[in-house]
Design goal:
CATH topology of the largest domain: Rossmann fold
Order of helices and strands: HHHHEHEHEHEHEHEHEEHHHHHHHHH
Strand order of the largest sheet: 3-2-4-1-5-6-7-8
Shape: flat
Structural class: alpha/beta
Mean pLDDT: 80
Helix content: 55-70%
Radius of gyration: 26 Å
CATH superfamily of the largest domain: P-loop containing nucleotide triphosphate hydrolases
Number of strands: 8
Number of helices: 19
């Protein structure tokens, strides 16, 4: 996400690098390029112009310090203004009431139901007991989808498949939650393919009846300015509390993220990437601004790692590595931990200086599947002792995994190289 925008802004700021001082001419040229980059990213022209006018005014009012180059100073000004454009500071959801009620709204196909499951998982991680409620009575698959999501995260799902009245379903769900000690109720409401009066009135009636403590509006970030216009229409009727940007891992130009706060004056609270239930991040304007300017987002990367980090598993693994007993069982477990962190390209983009360099790099997310299928085709004994793999065993594993013997030999070579590196690192630690 933001790859093209980031590249163009970085290119624009290069105009100032090497300049002896900030002048009206070079600032005007740079802000003009940035404005063009924002418009290309589907940011409304008025918002783009207001943003670059602010940057220009602040840049011209600055004296360049001897230790700071014009490029560095201008980057800081752009960064500060981007943070404000994106919302200023991080805003978490408000969970008040007993039970707390969170209503999810948005158009059909925006990712509401998937987000509801992700939010339930997030809330469970905070020690609460959520209840998912299926109030989309028009799309039968929505009820089944919510049930599948709930089962995957061991979360209760309230449904009334025969009832076509979403207000009654919501009211009954609240009674159920109180009886079953669910302290957070997440209501997945119906979407439509486009905004219509019936839809707006129905969701307004649900709000008036159940009085949620938080209303979150989910928008498909790939729709750019259309997402912003839809958000405005919903906000005029619902006065929602925050925005969720879904599908941010897709081919999005970023216009929705950069425009929505200015238009509806409501904070972006979450960013949802992909279908994995772990792929949900709190929205931090300062971190997003850093990523747009190609400065990475190390804090979010560390938080992703911590979210899947198992202390006891790490201790066990460390003991095995110290004894040079690391095997394929351990290896596949580590692969699965990495996959839980999300899209590899997205993770790499969080590393400072890497974002734009991997823009056109084709990273095969399916590469892990080949490795996993090879390891899973081994017997437990073979995983623990790869030296057992003779020619006949290799033939069996290759056939069972749908891969070639060459693929297996390549994996074995890489695995042995990794074990040698681990052994050398252990020896270095022991000598200290």
């Amino acid at each position: 996400m933001f790859e093209n925008l980031s590249l163009k802004i970085e290119k624009a700021i290069k105009n100032l690098k090497g300049q002896g001082r900030i002048s009206e001419i070079n600032v005007a040229e740079t802000t003009k390029e940035i404005r063009r980059a924002l418009v290309d990213a589907d940011v409304h022209f008025k918002i783009a112009k207001e943003f670059t006018d602010l940057v220009k005014t602040k840049a011209m009012g600055q004296n360049v310090l001897t230790s700071v180059s014009p490029g560095q100073l201008f980057t800081k000004i752009v960064n500060d203004e981007l943070v404000q454009l994106l919302g200023g500071e991080q805003k978490d959801i408000v969970i008040n009431g007993s039970p707390a009620i969170i209503m999810i709204a948005g158009l059909q196909g925006s990712g509401k139901t998937t987000f509801s499951g992700k939010l339930a998982k997030y809330i469970r991680s905070k020690g609460r007991q959520p209840l998912l409620v299926a109030c989309d009575v028009y799309r039968p698959a929505a009820i089944e989808q919510l049930k599948v999501l709930g089962a995957s995260i061991q979360t209760d799902v309230y449904t009334e498949p025969e009832n076509k009245n979403p207000i009654e379903i919501a009211q009954n769900a609240l009674k159920y939650a109180k009886e079953h000690n669910n302290n957070v109720v997440i209501i997945d409401t119906a979407g439509r393919l486009s905004i219509d009066e019936q839809m707006m009135q129905e969701i307004y009636n649900i709000k008036q009846t159940i009085k949620p403590s938080e209303i979150l509006f989910v928008v498909d970030a790939m729709t750019g300015q259309d997402a912003v216009n839809t958000a405005k229409n919903f906000n005029d009727r619902l006065d929602f509390d925050g925005v969720v940007l879904s599908k941010m891992d897709g081919d999005t130009r970023g216009g929705a993220a950069l425009s929505i706060k200015s238009v509806v004056n409501k904070p972006i609270k979450f960013v949802s990437n992909g279908e994995k239930l772990e792929a949900l991040d709190l929205f931090y304007p300062d971190r997003m601004a850093s990523r747009i300017l190609g400065m990475g987002d190390v804090v979010s990367l560390v938080e992703r790692a911590q979210s899947v980090y198992d202390v006891e598993e790490a201790k066990r693994l460390n003991k095995k590595i110290s004894k040079n007993n690391f095997d394929f069982e351990d290896f596949i477990q580590q692969l699965q931990q990495i996959k839980k962190m999300g899209n590899i390209k997205d993770l790499m983009a969080m590393i400072p200086g890497v974002g734009n360099k991997i823009k056109d790099l084709d990273i095969d997310e399916g590469a892990f599947k080949g490795i996993e299928s090879l390891i899973q085709s081994m017997t437990p004994a073979e995983r623990q002792d790869p030296d057992l793999l003779n020619a006949s065993r290799k033939t069996r594993i290759a056939k069972g995994s749908g891969r070639s013997i060459q693929d297996l030999n390549k994996l074995l070579t890489q695995f042995n190289d990794m074990k040698k590196m681990m052994k050398n690192m252990n020896n270095m630690k022991a000598r200290r």
